[in-house]
UniProtKB/TrEMBL annotation:
Residues 220-290 form the CusB-like beta-barrel domain. This is Multidrug resistance protein MdtE. PANTHER family: BLL4320 PROTEIN, MULTIDRUG RESISTANCE PROTEIN MDTA. Residues 379-419 are annotated as: Disordered. Signal peptide: none annotated. InterPro entries: Beta-barrel_RND_2 (IPR058792), RND_pump_MFP (IPR006143). GO terms for cellular component: efflux pump complex.
Length: 419
């Protein structure tokens, strides 16, 4: 366009020159516009060459690919459950005569929690006890007699007395067992809920009186994706938090991994035990769980904002000297601090473009500028090779700039003279 404009202006100048001069002095003046035309073309050629040589240098910030010890984890939501729990009830129907604990009390295994009115049962037990004692006394007398007089009593009669003792003993033990139906004892250490009945209430057999929970340890139950089925193992560590205690972490261990995927949810059930000596964790609490599949795995990290998506492809721009080179990468999960895990395509120390990549094309020339938020430790020695390309202009480049200015000035003079 500049060439066409200058050519037009030169032709105009020639026409003006020819118009304002007589025929007799045509030859001397004819060479002036021709000379001016050639000079203008040379100036424009210089300007065009400089413009062609001009390369846009894109300023970018970079960060080095770093290696860090990485924990492979999964986060889920679950519920706290008691490992052991029991609904406590009597095995007989009668009035409640005693409750030895209050709502929410802690109890030890074997302690009597409540009793029924056992007057009738105790009378039956006493009667059975007396019957047993009498049967034993009769047998002892006969046995003493037989020592003195071996044939004083027929063997059949002696056997009958011995059978009476056995029957009386069985009846006595049965009556003792009935007495236990009138008691509720703690089957394990734990904490009671509230009682459903009070002293004096008539209660039926198998009617729940109170529930006992074992709260040390407790269990957290949750489910993970079936994609992680092969990662979950018994013995893996879990960290658990609940809203009641803010950021306080309770540590536990996986003690159960379901052997099959649940048909309804498509997930895998997991149980983990948690120490709970102070009974802070209560059954029914919602819990946030972090399960550690593995710890300390070396992984490469790059800033998430350095990754560019092109359909299914993911790539970054690598710094190679003063050029940006496209590098396709394979990613794993993102971290919570703005980085992504790279499992293929990069090496420790590679410099990736962090900002400015929106203007980059393949093999673009770049200028690395220091990011104020980027620590020196995040850069690696080969940043110097990139920095060298950002040095002050050389003499040749300055000369080029000077030629560019000269060409521009010449072009302006063409216009002015044409006017």
């Amino acid at each position: 366009m500049l060439t066409q404009l200058a050519t037009t202006q030169v032709r105009t100048a020639c026409d003006i020159s020819l118009t304002h001069h007589s025929h007799q002095d045509l030859k001397p003046t004819l060479f002036a516009p021709v000379t001016f035309f050639i000079t203008s073309l040379l100036a424009l050629s210089s300007l065009t060459a400089v413009a062609a040589d001009k390369v846009d240098i894109i300023p970018v910030t970079v960060e080095a690919v770093k290696e860090t010890a990485f924990d492979d984890t999964v986060k889920e939501v679950g519920k706290i459950n008691a490992i052991d729990s029991a609904v406590l009830n009597f095995s007989a129907s009668e009035k409640i005569s005693a409750i030895h604990f209050n709502h929410g009390d802690k109890v030890k295994k074997g302690q009597i929690i409540a009793e029924l009115d056992n007057v009738k049962a105790k009378a039956d037990l006493d009667k059975a006890k007396s019957t047993l004692a009498l049967a034993k006394t009769k047998l002892e007398r006969i046995e003493d007699l037989l020592i003195k007089e071996p044939f004083a009593l027929a063997k059949q009669d002696v056997d009958e007395l011995r059978e009476n003792v056995n029957l009386a003993d069985a009846d006595f033990r049965q009556k003792q067992a009935v007495m236990n139906d009138y008691l509720i004892k703690a089957p394990f250490d734990g904490q009671l809920t509230s009682f459903s009945q009070s002293i004096g209430s008539q209660i039926g057999a198998a009617t729940a009186l109170v529930t006992l929970y074992s709260l040390h340890p407790v269990e957290v139950r949750y489910a993970i994706s079936q994609h992680d089925f092969g990662k979950a193992k018994k013995g893996q560590e879990v960290d658990v938090t609940v809203e009641a205690y803010g950021d306080k972490t309770f540590t536990g261990v996986v003690n159960y991994v379901a052997p099959a995927v649940d048909n309804n949810s498509g997930r895998v059930d997991i149980h983990a035990t948690l120490e709970n000596p102070e009974f802070k964790l209560a059954p029914g609490m919602f819990a946030n769980i972090k399960q550690y599949y593995s710890r300390g795995i070396k992984r490469l990290l790059v800033p998430q904002n350095s990754i560019i998506a092109n359909n299914a492809e993911r790539f970054v721009w690598l710094v190679r000297g003063d050029r940006a080179v496209k590098q396709v990468v394979k990613l794993a999960q993102n971290t919570n601090d703005g980085y992504a895990v790279v499992i293929e395509g990069l090496a420790v120390g590679d410099l990736v473009v962090k900002t400015g990549m929106q203007n980059i094309k393949s093999d673009s020339q770049i200028k690395v500028v220091q990011d104020k938020n980027l620590k020196d430790s995040q850069l690696v020695p080969n940043i110097e090779s990139a920095a060298e390309s950002t040095a002050e202009p050389t003499a040749d480049s300055k000369a080029g700039s000077h030629s560019k200015s000269t060409a521009a000035a010449n072009a302006n003079s063409v216009t002015e003279e044409a006017e």
